[in-house]
Each structure stands twice: as C-alpha cells, then as structure tokens.
Design a protein that fits this description.
With about 500 residues, the chain is an alpha+beta fold. It has 15 helices and 29 strands. The chain folds into two domains: about 100 residues, no CATH class; about 260 residues, Glycosidases (TIM Barrel, Alpha-Beta Barrel), CATH 3.20.20.80.
Amino acid sequence: MKIKCLKDEYWYGGFVKDGTKMPLSEASNVTVDTTINRTPNQAMPLFVSTKGRYIWKKEGFKLSFKDGEIEIDDDCFVSEAVGTLKKGYLKAMAEEFPFKKGTPSPELFKNPIYNTWIELTFNQNQEDITKYAEGILSNGMPAGVLMIDDGWSEYYGNWTFHSGRFKDPAAMIKMLHEKGFKVMLWLCPFISADTLKYREALAKDILIKTSEDEPYIVRWWNGYSAVLDMSNPEAVAWLKEQLDALTSLGIDGFKFDAGDSFFYEEENKTYGSTTPNEQSILWEQFGEQYEYNEYRVTYLAGGAPVLQRLCDKQHSWNEEGIGGLIPDSLLQGITGHPFTCPDMIGGGEYVNFHEALKTRFDEELFVRHCEIACLMPAMQFSAAPYRLLSKENYKKILTLIELRKSLTDYLMELVERAGSTGEPILRYMAYEFPEDGCDTVIDQFMLGEKYLVAPIYEKGQTGRFLYLPKGNWLRNGEKIISQGEKLWCEQGEDPLILFERQRAM
C-alpha cells in the first residue's frame, strides 16, 4: 500500500534510537522495518504525523519513504488526519495502546537515581556500595533510589547475593534504608550454563529450546547463557520465587536488563510459541508488578507504567553521546514512553567511560549531560561527580540538583498526569505549538506545557540558538514577548537556558 505525504507533513515514530533521524517527510528517502526490534532501546510499531495521521500495526511493519510517497504493508492501519501531532498521538494512544494507568514509583523522579555500575562495574560488593552511598550524602547530594548493578549475584539465574562479596546483605539494605535510599537490583533473563540453577531450570523444562529441542544458548555482552522462557508460567513462578526472597530482605525493586528482541530467534521453541518480540514483551510485562523498575529496551511497551532509560551513551559530544539525549528522549514520549531517563550522567558505556577517565575525561561534557538530564523525568548518576570534577564544576552539579528540586512539584504533577492521560512529559515543540512552524525542532523541549528547556550540547559553547514560539515568556524574571523567532541566548550564570510560558489571563 502507498500513501502520499501531505504538504509540510512530518512523521515521528519507530525506534527510539533513531531520534536524531526524525522527523521523516516527503523529502526523506529511508526504509524502516519495525517487525523486529534490532536496536538496544524501545520500539513501537507506530508513526505519528504533524497533520494528525498515524500508521499502526501491532505486529510491526515495513515502511519506506521515497519521492513523497510512503509505502507500507497492506494490512497496516492508516488513520485520517485530525490536524496536529498532539491530536494524532492522543488518538493513536487511545485506540491502539491505551495507558494501563499508574506510574513507576514517584521516588524514581523526586530525587536523583544512583547506579553503582561505573564506580564498581562487575566488582559489586557490600563495602564499596556502602562507601558509595556514604559519599553521596557526605558530599551534599540527596538520598534517592540506589541501583546495585550487574555483579551482585552468585551468577546469572541464581539471584542471591554473592556470599564472598556480601557478608550481610540484609544489614546493608537496612543501613541504606536508614540513610534514606531505596534499593534496586540488576536482573536479566539469562542463566549461566553448567550451574546448579541451569540444571534445575532444565529439569523444570523452563528454558527456551532450539529447533532440535536442545537448550538455546545465546551469545550476549557477558558471554554465553541459557535463556528463561517467559511464556512458560512455571518459568515466571520460578523467577518470582527468587525475587520474593529478595524483597523479603528489603529490596524495593529491580532493574530489568537485556530482553532485547535480537537475543531470540524465530526458530526457537517456546512454551507459548512466541516470536522474539513477544519474549521481549513478556519480559517487560513481568516487571510491571514491581513499583520500582527500570528497562533499557522494550517492544510494544507504550502505555506501560515502567521507567524506560535510554541505552548506554558514549562519553562523547556526538549523536552516540549527549547529542542524542534530547532527540531520543523526545521520541520516547511521542511513542508512548513518558517515564524516561536519559542514561547515566557522563555516559553509561563503561569500557568507553573508563578509557575516557585515563585519556580524555571531559568535565564540561559531564556537566552538560547533567544540565540536559536535570529537567527530564528521571536523572541518574553512576560515576561519582564529587570524585571526578573540580570543586567549581561539582558546585554546578549541586546547583542543577537544586533547580530540579525547585520544580519537583510540577514534575511530579506531570508524572501523575502521564499515568492517567498518556501525554508525554517531554514534548516536541510541534506538540505544543502546531502553528509555529517548529515541526523539525528536536534539540530543545517543552517540559509539559509550561517550561521551554534549551540545554547546550556542543563543546565550548556558552550559548545557543533556540526557537521561541509566539507568546509571552519569562526568563530569570525578565518578560519576553516573542513573535515566533529563532534567537541566540547566552547561558550566563544561569544553571541552564529555561523559559517559563506565561498564559494569557
């Protein structure tokens, strides 16, 4: 089936990792295949346009833009134009992926999240986690949710604390709670082969199999593992039993990693005869029972009450680093993922990051990443800023945390509203200002309908060009009347470039 692009029609959707490639238009020459998520981030089989049309097919579809035409699968649904990006999104959401109501825990948004990954990598241990928490507080940062990352368990599939590195995990959790932290643990759907838990899972017949009925062994970033079949109720019960033991110790929730569609194969044999995308869907749905949750990759999870982080970003200025944070986060919102987190501040690619520490760690980049993150739904630290930064730059981090604190009530209002209405928290300019000709602006965002946020994301810059829509605005107490214009703004002594929209009385 072919449909024509309308004049000045711009499309957003598909893979969150393609945020910098948006929007697509009649001038585009590109093909997108959403039938399987081969990216390390969220995916939705949805495209929405600034004219209020949307394209949808729950199982995914192929889409091509060429010569002003869009070619899609014959069984795709294409809606009528309803006028604006906002109306098109709300119509698609209501009819195709209605929100499940509710949000992840408010604590994931009230204060910064802290993740132990960059500081400890695979050497997660009780002593250093305690020091990490104490360092956060002693350096003037507030307590928040603390995620203990990969390496805390005996091995994959045996979700108990490593006996050699955690002498008394219950006491550690109690101590962290007393200091004001909530505690989450990293998980994956993999099971280390040739282990007791592997043999137990094999006996229970809860592993994914190959077409030859052998246990399916997948190669992933940490080696080779068997894979839990989330379509099997016994597999779900087996995992839940282990997590119940952890929550009884005081663990508040879990960071659900992996589950990428590309770790599964079409030929796999599963209890529910599932596709790779369906296994990814089931992994996400399992985590919804926990109020404290986080996902890096999902398929068809628009409308789910889970925190969805951007994939690990490089410690760099380009689109693989902080240059991709705003575009990717905006695409999350317009595809039904409002509860977003723009990766770990400074970058989450630990190998790249540790190399950067030795050769090219960039304090300016770290601060700019924090500026971008501080007014997004969730902000997450991993590398300890008080250890890495100069006193002057660390002071900027504390100032940004205070700025976020000053807007917490408004941010929490947006989070709660998103849980009931499905509206994005971070919004494209075209979402709020459909008549202003800002359909292609993807490097600034509206925080709800009230604040325009325009962070600096290029090295060495002290200001930036931004688009200020028509209307009355307030910046640092100064009233600005805009006719809809592109203008240069200096950051000056401000934490970041922030405009407050003034509504007509």
